[in-house]
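I would like you to help me understand the sequence and structure tokens below and explain how sequence relates to structure.
___
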Amino acid sequence: MPAAHVSRVRALYRRILLLHRVLPPDLKALGDQYVKDEFRKHKTVGSAEAQRFLQEWEAYAAVLWQQANENRQNSTEKTCFGTALPEEKLNDFRDEQIGQLQELMQEATKPNRQFSITESRKPKS
């Protein structure tokens, strides 16, 4: 792979993980793991699929960055992350991707998530 491509992928990966810091702890953990898994799975894909992969993740990063900025400006309102997935995009997904999306949705919306993360707190003196 060309060095410029590898550099672009690494920069995007780091940017997404940094953006995840604005998410609630349980969603951050879920998102971080998903990003790590997806980037690992796509290390050896062909050029066309790699370009599509990067475009989609760059769009995700742009939306998350915008939502994080809106959240900072409207700190009194409840934070909402994510966006609706248009049907025409869903139609482009393979069966494996649909299943993966279903699993991700179930994990993100279930009341007792598999991640049990608490923010570290300083002990009261």
Q: What stands out?
A: The radius of gyration is 17 Å. Residues 20 and 28 are 5 Å apart (CA to CA). Residues 116-123 have pLDDT under 50 and may be disordered.
